[in-house]
Amino acid sequence: MTTPVPRSHRGLFAGGVLLGLMAEQVVLFSVPLLIFQDSKELSTLGFAFALEWLPGLIAYPFAGLLADRDGGARLFSRVAAGRAAVLTVVVAVLLLRPSVTTAALMTSGALLSVLVAPVRMSVEKMVPQIAKGEQLAATQALVQNMELLAMALGPALAMLGAVLLGKVWLLGIAAAVFALAGLCWLPLPRVREKRARQNARANLAELKLGWSLLTGNRPVLLLGVLNFAINFALATLLSMNAALVTGVFKAPDSAFALLNTCVGVIGLVNLALIPFLLRKFSVQFLGVLGFTLLAAGLLLVGVTPSFAVYAVLYVAVMTGDALYNIYNRTQRIRVIPQEHLGKIMGPFYLLNLLSFPLAGLLVGSAATAVGPQNLVAALAVVLCVFGAVLLPLTMRSFRRAIAAREGLLVGAKA
């Protein structure tokens, strides 16, 4: 018999996740605009995007080990405090030395990238602790929709702060919100693994074990490869979004914030509809629907003539990504042993997110020559062909793995 999780714990969990994501959205609003307006170069924006993601990739496997040992709650709170400290220092530097704006923002992006990894691993580790059985899919959907909800509240907060205080002080607001996120998780139970202190060789052995468990888990490995392809096309669009809105379509900064707010409003609708959808449709159906919407939206972004049409397509792409990620998050948890979750999810995230710095490098080296819209369209075509082959294979592999796992559980109880 499982011990029921107090509703207050679920509320604090959701509140901490939401506040952390809101702060991230404020940073994602402020930093690209500050860099693009300071440098006036699309290539600088692309290389900044690559630098922002690259250090975090190295951190993910180690963050997975930390989450396995810590249980998630304390790690999340400590890292949230670290993110707040980084942004506080950046605000001071930008106010005292505005001539180093781009360099300071790129450096802080690299530091914040390292700190994203333990936050994501903490959330992955905490979800199974507060959600059991049928609640798992709904809780994973809640986490996914918190991301969309943050995209509504974060840019709205950013737009208001930009008008009242200016873009630099938005980073100070983000620091305060990160601190609040960490406070939310302080009362959550801290379940730590009891183990002897380990040396570097033992840690490397655990990292190797994580990679071997990932490569030996066929459905999760296929999912990671598919996610890489999706994220590569999506990250290319995300890295150029500020330049597309304010450069190609000549829209004001407020339109950039409003666009992300609209994505978040759709998140609110999703938040209300997902429980109904999960009762009526399988997570497999939602995965196919999400992938189709995302790929079609990316393809049309490459030919859209106006900001109004681009805005609709951008919202469609992000909504498709949210629907696909309900499948992505729910299925992988069902075939990964709980005791090895962090070890496997660290390399899994590394494989997934390697696409982000590579997309940034592609934008930095080719977007100006090829054209940002042409680049997105070309990647969308490749993604459509790749997904048409790999998505059915991945889903079939998950069905077999889940059936085998459930068969073992039934046999053990008999």
From TrEMBL:
Location within or outside the cell: Cell inner membrane
Annotated organism of origin: Streptomyces xanthochromogenes
Spans through the membrane: 12-36, 42-63, 75-96, 102-121, 142-162, 168-188, 220-244, 256-278, 285-301, 307-327, 348-369, 375-395
Cell membrane recorded as keyword: yes
Pfam families linked to this entry: MFS_1
Membrane topology: Multi-pass membrane protein
InterPro entries: MFS, MFS_trans_sf
Name of the featured protein: MFS transporter
Superkingdom, taxonomy of origin: Bacteria
Keywords for this protein: Cell membrane, Membrane, Transmembrane, Transmembrane helix, Transport
